[in-house]
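Need tokens for this chain, all 99 residues.
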Amino acid sequence: MKTEQIPQKLDNPAQVFWLEVDEIMPFFICWAAGLFLRKLTGSTWMVTGGIAVGIFFSWVYMKHKRGSLPGALQHIFYNAGVMGLNKRFSNGLLRSFTK
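Here are the structure tokens for all 99 residues:
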């Protein structure tokens, strides 16, 4: 029987430069918010602030992601009540399971 090598990073998300897509999304969201606020206020400092805040949030997210287990972010959103964990555990704010 012939053995084959399976790549370790086969299921990883796509990469943009050296970052994964989910790591760069906080930057793009804050940058877009800065562009929107510039249209509302007319100040170009909103774009600069959006870029700075986006870099900070991307850095914080990368530090958290690389220091925790896979799926940790989904559990954080579940505990905050933002989204369900799966079909059985759909409400993260429900703290008591008694009848």
